[in-house]
What does this fold into?
Amino acid sequence: MTTGTPTTGTPTTSAQQLADRYAALWTESDAAARRGAIERLWAEDGTHLLHPPVEAREAAARVGFAEPVLEARGYEELEFRVARAHEEFVAPGEFTFRARPDAVRLRDVVRFTWEMVPVGGGEPVGGGTEFVVLDTDGRINADYQFPGF
It folds into this structure.
């Protein structure tokens, strides 16, 4: 696979470049830069689907939802989702996110893992796996996030 420019979503962007840009987005402090990164990474109607934490799945099951999914669709909702995660995990200065060096691409699907680590170094305190489906322009059409290792 050839490598492309890391600032645009192109079909030649390597899987690891995409994973690194994805993780960097969640650590971006500047709101305008975050929005720009979202527009470069995702298709306009792209979707981020989150497998909810166990507690949320159990609460949903109690009221009749067997397979709950949290979803953000389109730039506005994606921007809100990323901003909230940034506010909760990164802005206080304790943690940062990084992609692990394991990204692989199979046609239009990229799989990689990420981790949340203390800013001062140390072992990861969280993480997860992403499966992203790319459109013909190399931008994310669907992003399936599974928190946990």
Q: What stands out?
A: Residues 95 and 118 are 4 Å apart (CA to CA). The first strand starts at residue 42 and ends at 50.
